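TL;DR need structure tokens for one chain.
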Amino acid sequence: MTEQKINPKQLKAISLMLEGISIQGIIEELKIDRNTLWRWKKQTIFICEYNKQSNSISNGLKYKHQKLVEKSFNVLEETLDIGTEKQKLAVAMAIIKAYKPLPEAEESYNKIKKEEKEDYLDGLLGAM
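>> reply
TL;DR here they are.
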């Protein structure tokens, strides 16, 4: 059995698919028949390459997201350490409003009414 290799047009089709280009757009761009693209999409080598590229994009986005979250936490932490009192309170309030308790703490956290939490925090900000 001969080893299948993916050709440049197939690579371009994969790239266009991952960009969200329509089937019609892909066949027009590559100047291929719809059946050719359909046949490629059924080939194991094509599916594997598509999945590889898709996973690579997904992993890159996850990494970027993680880095942005880390930077955001660093900014919040720095503001809590060295910001003005009003900045510190605003950051603390934003963190508390966005806080999602761990499952084991959720029941007791939910006993406090959301409005009471927000009223308390708004009162603190108003006093500044």
